[in-house]
Input
Amino acid sequence: MKRHLLALLVLIPSTLLFGQQRSSNTWVKFTSEPGRFSALLPVEPTQQTETTPSDHGDYTTHMFVAKSGSKIYIVAWVDYDPSFQFRPNNELDANRDNFIRGLKATLVSSHNLTLKGYQALEFTAETTEATFKSRVFIVGRRPYQLVVRTDKGVEDKENTMRFFESFTVKP
Output
């Protein structure tokens, strides 16, 4: 059984209602020691964590959410039970597919790539209201997912790339 960042989908609606709402050109460098990553975000993010039981052991989804105006920036990762084994390519595809299914979105584009030496998948999905640009990385046994949500028809390539390119992770 494949496990994914599906919990991310459950938590997105609450971030739309309760996330921060400051817009600024001054971004903050956020670092998560347990997550072993850092990234630039428009505001300090809020953290949400959910542990999900499964037949193959519990897994915990960690998510950091920053809202700036109508845009939402998310960094998430999953810690799997040590006994759970997955194939990186399958995990990348499964995270994308479950993310899209959970939002009832449509896949616009998807491609595999290597970023900073890690296997990754970059994709764009749309709902009737929003566009989601995402990158999923596999670092060791952890899948990380970066997401930028914008209103449909509103492009913000500069800030999306600023966020994506600022993401660094310690193996």
User: Anything to note?
Assistant: DSSP finds three helices and ten strands in the chain. The radius of gyration is 15 Å.
